[in-house]
Amino acid sequence: MFVFLLRNAIADHRITIRAITVIDGPHTGGARLVVDKPELVKEVLARAGVTCTSTKCLALEMPTTPADSLASRGSCPCVSAGLKML
Known about the structure:
The relative contact order is 0.14. This protein has helices spanning about 1-10, 40-45, 65-75, 75-80, and strands at about 15-25, 30-35. Helices cover about 35% and strands about 15% of the residues. The mean pLDDT is about 75. It is globular and about 40 Å long. The chain contains 4 helices and 2 strands, in the order αββααα.
């Protein structure tokens, strides 16, 4: 239900959700979104009565090639950025 509220609240504003994580607990729930227009999302959700905050994050767009073959060639964005693949 919560995800549908989020989707419906931002659907009319042509906002792209690039990633979503939904957290569900016994007494509360929440979601973390990575979107292309964060300030607009905050405004839209506030008007819909949804409490929200924003934080900065690091996001990498990963290719759809298996990580092992990319890491061995050194062409993986994580490897290029100096991040270790564990």
